[in-house]
Amino acid sequence: MKKYFREIGILMLGMFLVTGAWAKTPQYHYVSITTDKGACLLKLYNETPKHRDNFVKLVKEGYYEDLMFHRVIQNFMVQGGDPNSRYAAQKQSLGDGGPDYKIPAEIQEGLMHKKGTIGAARDDNPAKQSSASQFYLVQGRVFSSASLDSLEEFRLKGKKLTAQQRELYSTIGGAPHLDGNYTVFGELLQGVETIDKIAVVETDERDRPLEDVRMSMKLLTRREALNLEREMEGLSPKTGFLTKFFDLFHSRYY
């Protein structure tokens, strides 16, 4: 009898150790965004956990399904996330909708408004708290050195950009005047060109597209995220029987 229990214990320990080997958690959360103009893949930053976790929650709930990009400004950004846009009539004013709470600002110097980043929209509250649902994807533009000098003098009222900012905005491009004022909480890994396609649509006097541009979002599962990270490292995805078996012992998400 003792031998029997010992063998059971060894078997359970073995199962625990093997399961633990498959218990890896992805480094980041990823969201696929499908629009009328193309698809994107978004990585959420761990440096902004409040914004990350709130966005993950809303995406899992299907909050963004069929919402519009209701504010589009070429060479600047495309904005969406107003729940009132789901069934909005033509020419209806949008931009005031969202959950009845705000997200505390998580503005960080190293997270800049380069092209392809996602930032949290907000009103003029002094604490710079973010809207719980409205966001923008940065298109911006590439700046010359002279343009950045002019931006410092006039738009930024003498505040100097860092060497990192000047390098970033003169190569990748973006919207440097937003730095320090809005929370950036992720960036597109794929589909940055989708922003360009949305940004050129015809708009009305409120910057709302004349033709609705809608979105759909999906949070990548734990396994999808792990395989994505493997592929980015040049490794093949894990899709075998053992992987699928041990995934049964883990939550679909993380």
From TrEMBL:
This is peptidylprolyl isomerase. Keywords: Isomerase, Rotamase. Residues 38-216 form the PPIase cyclophilin-type domain. Gene3D superfamilies: Cyclophilin-like. InterPro entries: Cyclophilin-like_dom_sf, Cyclophilin-type_PPIase_CS, Cyclophilin-type_PPIase_dom, Cyclophilin_A-like. One of its GO terms (molecular function) is peptidyl-prolyl cis-trans isomerase activity. Its EC number is 5.2.1.8. It is an enzyme of class 5 (isomerase). Pfam families: Pro_isomerase (PF00160). Belongs to the cyclophilin-type PPIase family. One of its GO terms (biological process) is protein folding. The lineage of its organism: Bacteria, Pseudomonadati, Bacteroidota, Sphingobacteriia, Sphingobacteriales.
